[in-house]
Recover the amino acids of this structure.
């Protein structure tokens, strides 16, 4: 069996879950936590990552690095990795798997390739393997073999062709619907609460939009702990749409709703300890409280 070492930056909710699944398939999973949070370090240790002492060591040891973190940090991380690639003169593969625009993916590709590394464009759809999901890694680029070799090892890998930006593009369009819809639902329920018509609206939804009401009740309570990560994702979607000549206003508005959710007390939870007993009503009332505090 060929020895494979995969670096994951960073082992947060998705990264740790992916790393643990790869490890079960016999793959050596490593990371460099550097100045990451205590939570990130604990997730890495729980998933039994090998913790390395520097970015240069990680670049030397890895056949492939998976960048899995919040969109706002994607370019900064790529800069760190590119410096390490230059310093070590390794032709390491680097897959950006973050929710970023195709334009940003192309900028990062130039950064990595110019440093001597080999870039793969990626986008993840689906939940963390830590909760039993098998996420789909959409990838594109001239050479994606190293990440294609991970298919079936706790993740699915789907190749979309040779162009950088294609994989990022499908992630942008998918999240525009899913996470964008979550914010529309939150906004309209908050409006109904402020107008005192929540019960009447829910009755109508139960009568004519039962699947949508069920979706709201099963999903909205989960939003606050993840909201800080999704603000940037909505901004990336807005940039993607704008660059295509499509209005960015839908997802600029979605980012504003996630900002409200991030200011609720429930945002202090983490994806690992979300209160599954919280109701949609409690979540919406928390948003209303944030709005009322802004007015006072």
């Amino acid at each position: 069996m060929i020895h494979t070492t995969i670096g994951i930056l960073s082992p947060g909710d998705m990264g740790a879950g992916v790393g643990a699944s790869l490890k079960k398939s016999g793959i050596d999973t490593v990371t460099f936590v550097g100045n990451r949070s205590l939570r990130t370090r604990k997730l890495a240790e729980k998933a039994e990552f090998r913790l390395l002492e520097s970015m240069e060591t990680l670049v030397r040891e890895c056949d492939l690095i998976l960048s899995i973190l919040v969109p706002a940090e994607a370019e900064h991380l790529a800069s760190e990795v590119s410096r390490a690639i230059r310093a070590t003169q390794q032709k390491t593969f680097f897959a950006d798997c973050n929710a970023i625009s195709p334009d940003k993916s192309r900028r990062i590709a130039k950064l990595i390739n110019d440093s001597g590394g080999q870039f793969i464009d990626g986008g993840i759809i689906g939940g963390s393997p830590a909760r039993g999901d098998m996420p789909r890694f959409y990838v594109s680029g001239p050479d994606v073999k190293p990440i294609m070799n991970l298919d079936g090892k706790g993740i699915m890998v789907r190749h979309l062709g040779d162009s950088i930006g294609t994989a990022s593009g499908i992630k942008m369009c998918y999240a525009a619907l899913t996470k964008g819809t979550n914010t529309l639902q939150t906004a309209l329920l908050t409006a109904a609460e402020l107008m005192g018509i929540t019960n009447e609206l829910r009755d109508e939804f139960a009568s004519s939009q039962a699947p949508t009401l069920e979706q709201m009740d099963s999903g909205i309570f989960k939003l606050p702990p993840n909201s800080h990560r999704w603000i940037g994702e909505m901004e990336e979607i807005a940039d993607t749409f704008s660059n295509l000549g499509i209005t960015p206003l839908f997802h600029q508005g979605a980012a504003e709703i996630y900002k409200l959710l991030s200011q609720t007390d429930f945002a202090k939870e983490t994806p690992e300890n979300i209160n599954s007993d919280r109701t949609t009503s409690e979540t919406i009332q928390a948003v209303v409280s944030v709005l009322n505090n802004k007015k006072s």
